[in-house]
């Protein structure tokens, strides 16, 4: 097993004290042959009704999206920003739908199940926080701009070169966002349809989403988002609260198996007494499993039981002992999502589409709290999923060639989580109606964010990149066609990215907004919160942040574990199998002794998260420094403004499409671009 894989999977355990009753002669699997463990039980396939229900609703969403083709009426304003006509209830629903994607739901539960509560909960917290911050700082101002895309805002302050850099950066960001949602939707379709190849499920998901997005533009996205929200949020909430109220909240202390030694003694009032333990054979002072009255058994994975939440997980690196805690990465995730998402194309497109600035502001704030309301309860489902499909369940799988001294395991130390565990909970461990409703809700959430991502990328490519290229076929009359066509390669590229990690929900979401945080977020604040936004400050802020992020990606120590090299045995990687003897917590005359047969473990060393925060800090320092150095200059005298590509652009309304955000200097990087004053571009 590779070191990277072991590093990654160590986090996936939450109690792996692992030996169970000896396997029967009829069973044969690596766990049985190497460690003498019972082979994992197979989960029966889901009912075909789940697949039928999910596909029916997916097709319904596509039909609704296709019908909105007639709402566009050939107008760019209708296609890109829904005619700037959306009322509060639609803005709120569509913003929350963009936030509550498969990452915030399925990815959230998967991470809480594989790691622990806060490892999943940081996703909805970061996403909800970003909407609230956007409502406070940007929503009203973005709506007042009357532009088509977020890069247009940069163009009005910083010129075409910055516009192009922002366009490229945000497109790259949204390729990863779309990939993350295709992974989530593909995981559900693949399991329900029994598709062996995860890549095939991803491609099917991509085709479904692409169809209706390309036809209706933001009209299709907005109205399907509302329907998806009405169906999906309630289904997800009802399913979450059913599980919370009707299932065991976290794995209890392990019952054990024949020969299992409990962690306390007879008469202590603890686990031994809970299960009526008896004196052990080899050492009567210890308490062992009672074979006379116990008929149940497990793997002994939780000597003292697990918790659904460790309250100090976000403050203490050792809160999950004997397992490590990715505290640095979790805090970085909140910061990356909370601030990186401020440059999200889909969020800002909806602010532009709001009927009034006030609606945009209120919609963002309400949507942020809705993200908390729906997303955070899903984090509690991780512990419930561990009860049903965790290391103490009959479905548990362990890697035989692994050892861990802190876990007292010479072999079979590493638990391998089930990538489909939560989907199995929904299809096998709760009422079918509620499980199916929740699955439809997660698919709807995936589709709502994915369609917004496809639309945003196609819009930016056609409006902010292709239309400025010499000899380009893009004109105001062909802008919608170009946007629709450009969605295809983006969808294909995102699907290709998704197939590289088809089982890792939530991963691509963090990558997506790490990209924007490192480069374009600071200049966005500069657009509205500096007296005179300086083009040179934005340019060098973007370049310095991006370059710093790229350098740190390769120069910082990263072993794939997401864990800095803290001291203590908790932060040691799994080693290869150390001994053929039984673990010390089994009543045996000659158990494994780590002092004579050591487990060869190396220390984790991964500074992921530090690079994200450092890059954003560099971007901020460079922007502030240049703004300070140019504080006495007029805009005309600012650095690089004499270069036509660095001249702020004028974006005006068009006679046919009121406030369509068309650039007046549409002649392919015209040299006569007008330098405007801060008041002309709405700078306070």
Main attributes of the structure:
two-stranded antiparallel sheet, 6 strands, mainly alpha, disordered C terminus, disordered N terminus, 684 residues, 23 helices, 2% strand
Secondary structure topology:
Layout: H1 3-10, H2 30-35, H3 48-67, H4 69-72, H5 76-81, H6 88-99, H7 103-114, H8 117-137, H9 139-145, H10 150-158, H11 160-192, H12 198-246, H13 271-274, E1 278-279, E2 287-288, H14 327-340, H15 345-353, H16 357-389, E3 398-399, E4 414-415, H17 421-428, H18 432-465, H19 479-498, H20 507-517, H21 521-529, H22 535-555, H23 610-629, E5 651-652, E6 662-663
Antiparallel strand pairs: 1-2, 3-4, 5-6
Structure description:
The chain is mainly α and 684 residues long. The chain has helices spanning 3-10, 30-35, 48-67, 69-72, 76-81, 88-99, 103-114, 117-137, 139-145, 150-158, 160-192, 198-246, 271-274, 327-340, 345-353, 357-389, 421-428, 432-465, 479-498, 507-517, 521-529, 535-555, 610-629; strands at residues 278-279, 287-288, 398-399, 414-415, 651-652, 662-663. β1 and β2 (287-288) form a beta hairpin. α6 (88-99) packs parallel to α16 (357-389) and α12 (198-246) crosses α16. The protein is globular and about 90 Å long. Mean pLDDT is 84; it is low at 1-26, 72-78 and 653-684.
């Amino acid at each position: 097993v590779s070191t990277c894989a072991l590093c990654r999977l160590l986090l996936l355990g939450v109690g792996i004290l692992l030996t169970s009753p000896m396997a029967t002669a009829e069973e044969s699997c690596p766990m049985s042959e190497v460690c003498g463990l019972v082979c994992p039980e197979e989960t029966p396939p889901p009912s075909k009704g789940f697949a039928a229900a999910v596909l029916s609703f997916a097709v319904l969403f596509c039909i609704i999206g296709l019908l909105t083709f007639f709402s566009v009426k050939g107008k760019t304003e209708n296609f890109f920003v829904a005619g700037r006509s959306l009322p509060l209830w639609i803005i709120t629903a569509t913003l929350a739908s963009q936030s509550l994607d498969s990452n915030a739901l399925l990815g959230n539960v998967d991470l809480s199940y594989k790691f622990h509560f806060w490892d999943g909960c940081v996703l909805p917290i970061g996403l909800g926080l970003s909407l609230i911050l956007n409502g406070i700082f940007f929503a009203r101002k973005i709506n007042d701009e009357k532009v088509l895309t977020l890069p247009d805002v940069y163009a009005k302050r910083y010129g075409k070169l910055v516009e192009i850099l922002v366009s490229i950066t945000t497109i790259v960001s949204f390729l990863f966002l779309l990939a993350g949602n295709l992974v989530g939707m593909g995981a559900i379709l693949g399991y329900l349809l029994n598709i062996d190849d995860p890549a095939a499920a991803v491609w099917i998901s991509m085709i479904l989403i692409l169809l209706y997005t390309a036809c209706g533009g933001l009209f299709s996205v907005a109205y399907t988002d509302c329907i998806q929200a009405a169906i999906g949020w309630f289904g997800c909430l009802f399913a979450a609260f059913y599980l919370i109220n009707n299932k065991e909240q976290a794995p209890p202390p392990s019952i054990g198996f024949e020969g299992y030694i409990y962690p306390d003694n007879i008469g202590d009032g603890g686990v031994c007494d809970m299960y009526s333990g008896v004196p052990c054979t080899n050492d009567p002072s210890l308490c062992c499993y009672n074979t006379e009255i116990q008929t149940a058994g497990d793997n002994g994975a939780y000597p003292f039981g697990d918790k659904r939440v460790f309250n100090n997980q976000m403050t203490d690196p050792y809160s999950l002992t004997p397992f490590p805690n990715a505290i640095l990465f979790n805090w970085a995730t909140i910061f990356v999502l909370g601030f990186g998402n401020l440059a999200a194309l889909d969020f800002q497109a909806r602010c532009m589409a709001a009927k009034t600035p006030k609606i945009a502001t209120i919609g963002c704030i309400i949507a942020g709290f809705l993200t908390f309301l729906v997303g955070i309860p899903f984090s509690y489902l991780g512990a419930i999923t561990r009860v049903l499909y965790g290391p103490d369940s009959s479905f548990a799988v362990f890697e035989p060639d692994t050892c861990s001294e802190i876990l007292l395991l010479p072999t079979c130390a590493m638990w391998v989580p089930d990538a489909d565990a939560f989907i199995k909970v929904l299809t096998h461990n709760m009422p079918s109606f509620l499980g199916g409703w929740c699955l439809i809700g997660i698919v709807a959430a995936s589709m709502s964010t994915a369609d917004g991502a496809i639309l945003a990328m196609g819009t930016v490519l056609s409006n902010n990149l292709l239309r400025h290229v010499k000899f380009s076929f893009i004109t105001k009359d062909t802008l919608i066609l170009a946007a629709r066509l450009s969605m295809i390669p983006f969808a294909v590229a995102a699907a290709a990215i998704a197939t590289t990690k088809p089982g890792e929900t939530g991963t691509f979401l963090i990558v997506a907004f790490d990209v924007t945080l490192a480069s374009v977020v600071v200049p966005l604040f500069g657009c509205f919160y500096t007296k005179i936004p300086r083009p040179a400050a934005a340019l060098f802020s973007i370049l310095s942040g991006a370059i710093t992020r790229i350098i740190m990606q390769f120069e910082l120590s990263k072993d794939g574990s997401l864990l800095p090299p803290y001291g203590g045995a908790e932060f040691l990687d799994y080693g290869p199998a150390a001994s053929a003897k039984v673990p010390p917590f089994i009543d045996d005359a000659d158990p494994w002794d780590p002092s004579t047969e050591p487990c060869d473990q190396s220390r984790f060393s991964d500074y992921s998260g530090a690079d994200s925060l450092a890059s954003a800090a560099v971007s901020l320092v460079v922007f502030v420094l240049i703004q300070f150095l140019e504080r006495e200059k007029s805009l005309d005298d600012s650095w690089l403004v004499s270069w036509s590509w660095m001249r702020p652009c004028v974006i005006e309304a068009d006679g046919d499409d009121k406030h369509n955000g068309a650039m007046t200097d549409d002649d392919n990087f015209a040299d006569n671009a007008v330098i405007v004053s801060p008041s002309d571009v709405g700078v306070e």
